Each structure stands twice: as structure tokens, then as C-alpha cells.
Amino acid sequence: MPSRRRTLLKVIILGDSGVGKTSLMNQYVNKKFSNQYKATIGADFLTKEVQFEDRLFTLQIWDTAGQERFQSLGVAFYRGADCCVLVYDVNSMKSFDNLNNWREEFLIQASPSDPENFPFVVLGNKVDVDGGNSRVVSEKKARAWCASKGNIPYFETSAKEGINVEEAFQCIAKNALKSGEEEEIYLPDTIDVGTSSQPRSTGCEC
Amino acid sequence: MIAGGIEDEEKWLAAGIAGLQQNAFYMHRALDSNNLRDALKYSAQMLSELRTSKLSPHKYYELYMRAFDELRKLEMFFKEEARRGCSIIDLYELVQHAGNILPRLYLLCTVGSVYIKSKEAPAKDVLKDLVEMCRGIQHPVRGLFLRSYLSQVSRDKLPDIGSEYEGDADTVVDAVEFVLQNFTEMNKLWVRMQHQGPARDKEKREKERSELRDLVGKNLHVLSQIEGVDLDMYKDTVLPRVLEQVVNCKDEIAQFYLMDCIIQVFPDEYHLQTLEILLGACPQLQPSVDIKTVLSRLMERLSNYAASSTEVLPEFLQVEAFSKLNNAIGKVIEAQVDMPIFGAVTLYSSLLKFTLHVHPDRLDYADQVLGACVKKLSSRGKLDDSKATKQIVALLSAPLEKYNDIVTALKLSNYPRVMEYLDIETNKIMATVIIQSIMKNNTRISTADKVEALFELMKGLIKDLDGAEEEVDEDDFKEEQNSVARLIQMLYNDDLEEMFQIISTVKKHVMTGGPKRLPFTVPPLVFSSLKLVRRLQGSQEQEENPFGDEGSTSPKKIFQLLNQTIEALSIVPAPELALRLFLQCAEAANDCDLEPVAYEFFTQAYILYEEEVSDSKAQVTALHLVIGTLQRMHVFGVENRDTLTHKATGYSAKLLKKPDQCRAVYGCAHLFWVEDQDNLKDGERVLICLKRALRIANAAQQMSNAARGNTGSVSLFIEILNKYLYFFEKGNPQITVATIQGLIELITTEMQSDNSTPDPAADAFLASTLRYIQFQKQKGGAIGEKYEPIKA
Ligand SMILES: Nc1nc2c(ncn2[C@@H]2O[C@H](COP(=O)(O)OP(=O)(O)OP(=O)(O)O)[C@@H](O)[C@H]2O)c(=O)[nH]1
Ligand SMILES: [Mg+2]
């Protein structure tokens, strides 16, 4: 297959509302940060070109709504993901506890070919808050969880201060690239195109 | 969307995917061989699959996502083409030849995004062109997805500030204009859907519409992300235009959802500065819109913002957020006569949380909110709606959580009035929440007035309210009464006079509790009062006459109160508990040198003993308590003491079982020999008691011999021996070496006698007693000398 296939890497960012998914993406792609909270609705992506081992790739980063009521259409966009980023807020135990749900939900919905080895990356965000004094999830605890789920790479980040954001996404890109997720190879029943390409749709004529 | 069952739909989706994949396959081949024409042909055929009307939004989305992914490959190809020198304008023209309009528009959007990227034309013009052309699709589902595709591919190409597409002519205004227009069109499609198809499918249609809502709302998210939409632009353009669309569409689902979106998607500062506009839209919405949820979420959001940093609080004051919200809520409740009471309470509870966060110092605001709530509730009487009661608990818990201090909540005059409307069960739950708050925060409730208010508030726990359920879970009841007991212990004031008032107040309430509660609440009240007695004692010793005036607190007054309090237990009846408490009081009166009072308490205890304590085991326990207490009393003159002692020995002899009799009688010996009181050392009467005990032990021995032919009471003798040794050692002249010697021999013979069965415990007891004697002998000195003659 030509190289075009593997130059697009699809990444999904998941996590509770307010943990900083949108902020991380904006910091990485646009080098911008805002203190204001603006909830995400539905799913939304930004792209960024990354250089890796002398090759250029396009990272397609999907940011999702953490609030369930803003995810009305479902998660069809999980399909074909090469890496899934799980984000929590180190100052919120609940957001950490929910990582497991996000991970499991992703595995069920995206049904990757090799769930055991599907690449995840975990980010503990907002490490800057209050100089780390309001932190409730220790790095040790987070790392232990990551280890228990098949050695998920872990980063402590701050979208606000730009701490570890670049490093994290480097790792995300690397893992996305390594992920064995090949596109399903489609072979038509017959190479000869004839009537089969007639649209069967019988809707209106638009 | 007249699709049949789910199965049919799966079939249609599978067919769509198959068609899409097949065409995608040929599209890939064309792309690999740089065959633009074929690429366009197959991509158009692939996109034709999106023309289906047979799929629900969820399934359509799956198909759409596959097409979407394929189009990224096409987009990349276009980019390469452009890089190779192919004219994008030509490409833009070329794709317009696709036969069907839907594939054509998808292709146009795809090329359009590359077109903007190439900067061959101003972004503004391309976007305007695309957003106009999309009008060609008027089928709601297809149109919504197409427009969301447009929104998605143009997302990073909007000419907003700082973006590379911000040309000379292109401004943030154009970006906003483009998104607003797309939003408006999408909302129209979405609303129109409601009116298509037969009425019987209404429910299904609403479900499908609900699934599609994020496609519409997403535009608002995009607007909020546009760099350069500052407060002014938001206030002057964005918000009015969005609201205009929301209000005018007159659609319940759209209005509710979009109001929620606006609140969540735009920043707090903007909401504060445009509160009037936002709130002004509420009354214009359809009457069926769930405004309470919308407003509650707004207030919740703003409360969190206020809680995030004290620095933002001036913003709230500056715009008078409280009064605006208060007004708006008042209007909504007034206008929506049919709003369930639960809705109104939810609104008040959100407003209360809001004001507690934003104006922690303005208790009058909080009280005002509670007052408005009372007014609303007063039209209904007691609540029986569980959702509403839950909200009231949330409402009433809010001030406790905020101030961590019930004392502050007690200042809210409307607080107890709201509680009135709770059903009895919930009233109790709330009372428990209050007590827990007091415990957790160690709140000092330090005046009688506050105690009065507090107990009034918790009356569900204090007494039976009218209409209370008969059946209460025993454990729950115990737990709740125990927490009341703990609370009583916690009430405290340094000032003795005030403390007495507190106790009197508690007493007044506790006395209404009825037979089930009194055993829990009387003891802590008694002990709390006795503590006060001790404090009064202490201060009396320091100062000569602090209680000069008649009305002031004195131990006597407290004892009076205690007497009545404990007497109340007789209705329970709980004679054993009352007896214990009377004895405690007697001892306290003893410490205060109040002989008549102490005597009175003893009399009370004796009456109970005689008239109420009937169980033989309970009698034994009670009697030992009496003896123990009496022995410690030093306040009694000879006469009183004689009377009480005489009675106690009398009771002892009348116990049912011989061993009990025996033990009580030798216990009474102590009543005649008090260590630190020289006038209370009557050796003769001690001996009389001990001899009497021996006689009883003997009788017991004979009885058990007769009954079972074995000894059982030999240990009684050893116990008595120990008593002899005690008084011997203490220097009672009546206890001689000979009597002790005789007793030891008696016991040894008894234990070696033929008809005795082995009793290891008694053996060990005797052995250790003898060892003790040996030990004392070896001590030497006066003790050693005293013991020397005893042969063990
Ligand atoms: N101090 C600090 N604040 C952050 C950081 N990252 C995000 N925030 C703030 O947290 C809030 C939420 O951030 P978002 O990025 O919108 O959160 P999200 O996960 O996208 O939330 P949803 O879209 O609702 O799922 C915003 O107010 C951000 O400014 C961080 O690293 N440090
Ligand atoms: Mg977000």
C-alpha cells in the first residue's frame, strides 16, 4: 500500500469534563491557553504536522466533550483511532477514578483489533494549580494504575504552563505510529465495475 | 426516516458501508495512479451512500464517519495536486460537475478547505460561497451532517485574529458571520424536522432530534473558540444573534438545549456582563421549556466561578448578579403557574447556593431566598413529593455546608419555617444532618436562645410529631437518639448562669420526648447538669459569695431540676436507670455538703428499689450500687446514716438467693468502717455483718448439699475470709487472730471432706489467699507482726 495510508495518525482525547482536554490540545497545536472554561460540544479535531524519524505525519487530534449530555450522537469517531489519550486532573480524585470507565468504554466502542496492546497514554493535568498543594492524586498512585493496565506511558502536564505537553504528544505520536492498527483491507467481490456502483439509495434526488 | 425495525436498519447500514467501501477502493486506486477524474468519479459515488434516508442519526453518523475518513485522503491528494501546480480554482470548478448535489457539496467543501489553505482566494469569500451553496440540501439529517462537515473542515481556517487566514479584508467579523449563518441554517433544519412526517411518529422523531442536537450546538462551541470574540462582540453581536434564533424558532427542544449550550460554552465573565440579556430571553421561551434547569445550571456555573477565586467576586457585585437572578427567578416562578413545587425549590436552592458563594456576608440575601421559598411552599401545605423534599434538604444543607456552623443558619429566620414543610421523616433526616454538622465542626452552641432555636429545628427527633409513623426501625431510632444525646453533651457555656439556662431549655424539650426517648436523653442531661454543679462548687470555693442574690443559679436549684428530670423516667418505666441517676445525684449533693438533698435522692433510690425493681438480678446490681455509694457518703449525720445503712442491710438480707444475700451482707460491713472517717469505724457492727454473712454461707452450703450433694458455696467462705483479713489489717479490734484461724480451718476441713467434689477455682482462690497471708508475714514491720500469729 502506498505511504499515504500511514501518514495520518488519529488520536482521541478522553476524560471527565473540565480536566483540560481542550486546553491541552490548544496548547499543543496553537501554543495558546485560556483560563476561561468553555465546554466542548460533540467531538472536534485539530490537525498538526509532526516530524518523526525523518518522516512527516499529520496528527488528527480529536477532542471530545467530557459532559455526557454534549455527546448526543455517540462515538462513531472512535473508529480507526491509533492512540487514545486519557486525561485526568491531579486535583480531582473523581476524574482519576473515572479513567477506568473511559478506557473500558473506549475499548468496547472502538473495538481495536488487539485491545491488549492498543496504545493509551495517560496525562495527569493541572500540576501547576496552587503550586501542587491542592493535588489529591499522587504520581505514585497514577503510575501504579498505568502499570496495572499494561504499562501505559504517563505524563504529568500543565496546559497552562505548557509543562510536558510537547513531550506527551511526542510520545502519543510515537505510540500511534507503532500501533498495529491497520486499516481494514477492503477487496471488492469483483474488480470489474459495472452495475454494482449504482447507488441503491432511493431517497429523494438530492 | 420510515425505516422499519432495528434489524432493517442494520441491514441498510451494512449495505451502505459495503457500497462506500467498494467505491473507496476504486478511489484509492485512482489516487495511487494520480487519476483525478476517476478519483472524483468514485468519490462522488462513494458519497452517494450518504443520500440514504433509511438510517437513524446514530447509524447515519457511522456511515458519515467512514466517508469523512475517506475524504481526508482525497483532501491530501488535492493538497498534493495543488503543490504540483494544479490550479485549485480549476479543481473547485471541476468538482461541481458531480451529478448529485449531495456528493457535489461534500466535494466542494473538501476542495474549498484546500482552496482557503492555498490562499488563492480570501477565506471569507470561499466560506460565504460554501455556506450559501449548502442551502441546496433541505433534508434535515443530510443537511445537518453536510453543514457539520463544512464546519469541521473550515474549523482551522477561519479568518480570526492571529490566524494565518486573517487577511486585509478578512476579519474576525467574517468568521463570526460565517459560523452564525451556518448555525442559523442548521437550527432551522433541525427545528423543521419536528414538523415532518406523521404525528404518530412524534416520539421517535423527538428521539432522533435529540441525537442530532450536538451538530447544532457545536457551532456555538466553534464561536466560543474564535479568537477575537471579545466581550463587546459577544454582547453586541454573538449573543443577540444566537438568542434571536433561539427565541424565534419557538421550538421547545431547541430552546432548552441551546440555552444550556450558551451557558456551558461561553465563559463566566461574559455571562456576568450579559446577565440581563440572557435572563431577558427566558420569559420569551415556550412555556414548556424547562427553564428551572437552565437557570439552575447557570447559577451552578456562576457559583463555581465565584468559588474559584475571591478575586472574581467584585465582578458579581459590580453587575448586581444576585438581584438580577433573584428577579428572573421570581418572574419565572410567577409566570409558570404549573411549575411543580420541586422545580421552584430547585431554583431557590440554586439561588441560595449562589448567594452563599458570592455574598457569604449577606445573610439577609440568604434569608430572603428562604423567605421566598416559604411563600411558595405556603400555598401547598406539607410536601409529599419526594423529589421536592430532596431539594429542600439540599436547600437547607447549603448554609450548613457553607458556614460549617449551625449558629449562622440559626440566624436565618426563615430557616425553621422552611423545615416546617418537610414531612416527618425528612424533617428527621434534616435534623440529623444538622447534628452531624455540629459534631463535625465542633460547633459551640453557647446560649439558651440558640439552644431553643436549635431544638425547635430538630423537634422531629425530640418528640413525636403528629401523624408520625408507628413503625420506626429500632436501629435507626437508637442511632438518632444517640446523636441527640451526644449533642446535649456538647452544649456549653463558660458562664454558669447561661449554662443553667441552657440546661433548663434542654430539659424543657427533652421532657416532651415520651417514654421511648427519655432513656437516651435524660442521662446526658443529668451528667451535663452534674458537671455544672461541680463547676459551681469550684467557683464557690474560690469566691466567697458569688450567688448572693436569690434568683441566681445554685447547686440546690440544679438538684431540684434533676429530681424532676429523673422522676420523669418513671413513666417509661426505667427504674434501674433512674436509681443509678439518683445515686449519682446523691453523691454530687454529698460533694456539695447538702445533706437533706443527698438524703432525698437516697430516699428516691430506695423507693424505686422497693417498689419498682423486681427482677432479682437487677436487685443485686442495684443494691451493690446503693452500698457502694452509701459507703462514700460523708455528708450524713449519724441519724440519717443509720437509717440508710439499716435499710441497706435489711434489703441485703432479703435478696432471693442465699449467695447474693451473703455477698450483699458482707458488703454492708464496709458501711460501718470508712477509712478516712474516724467517727465511722464501728468494729462491732462490722463483725456482726461478717458473722451474719457466715451464717448465710452456711445455710447456702446446707441447701446445696441437700439439693445436689456437693459443695458450691465454699468459695463464699473464702470470700468472707478475705473480708476478715481486710478488716483485720485495717485494725478492727473485733477481728482477732483466733477468728481468722478458725475460719481457715473451717474452710480447709470443708474442702477435704468426703462429700465435697473437687473445685479447682476454689482451691486456687484459697491458695492465693493463703499466699497473701504468707506474703504479709514476710513483709516484716507492723504488718508482719500482725500477721505473724496466723498459721496458714
Ligand atoms: N491551572 C490550570 N488550569 C487548567 C489547565 N488545563 C485546563 N485548565 C482550566 O480548566 C478549565 C477546563 O479546561 P478545558 O480544557 O476546557 O477542559 P475539558 O476537559 O476540555 O472540558 P470539557 O470540554 O467539558 O470536557 C479551564 O478553565 C482551563 O483554563 C492547567 O494545566 N492548569
Ligand atoms: Mg473541552
UniProtKB/TrEMBL annotation, chain A:
InterPro entries membership: P-loop_NTPase (IPR027417), Small_GTP-bd (IPR005225), Small_GTPase (IPR001806)
Keywords annotated in UniProt: GTP-binding, Lipoprotein, Membrane, Methylation, Nucleotide-binding, Prenylation, Protein transport, Transport
SMART domains assigned: RAB, RAN, RAS, RHO
The keyword Nuclease is assigned to this record: no
Coiled coil: none
SUPFAM superfamilies the record matches: P-loop containing nucleoside triphosphate hydrolases
Cellular location(s): Cell membrane
Gene Ontology BP, a term: protein transport
Single Gene Ontology MF annotation: GTP binding
Gene Ontology cellular-component annotations: plasma membrane; vacuolar membrane
Stated role: Protein transport. Probably involved in vesicular traffic.
Name of this protein: Ras-related protein Rab7
Organism: Dovyalis caffra
TrEMBL record, chain B:
Protein localization: Cytoplasm; Endosome membrane; Golgi apparatus, trans-Golgi network membrane; Prevacuolar compartment membrane
PANTHER family referenced in this protein's UniProt entry, alphabetically: VACUOLAR PROTEIN SORTING-ASSOCIATED PROTEIN 35, VACUOLAR SORTING PROTEIN 35
Protein name: Vacuolar protein sorting-associated protein 35
InterPro entries in UniProt: Vps35 (IPR005378), Vps35_C (IPR042491)
A biological process from GO: intracellular protein transport
A Pfam family of this chain: Vps35
Family of this protein: Belongs to the VPS35 family.
Key word rRNA processing present: no
The keyword Protein biosynthesis is annotated on this UniProt entry: no
Known role: Plays a role in vesicular protein sorting.
Highest taxon listed in the record's lineage: Eukaryota
GO cellular component terms, semicolon-separated: cytosol; endosome membrane; Golgi apparatus; late endosome; retromer, cargo-selective complex
Keywords assigned: Cytoplasm, Endosome, Golgi apparatus, Membrane, Protein transport, Transport
Topology versus the membrane: Peripheral membrane protein
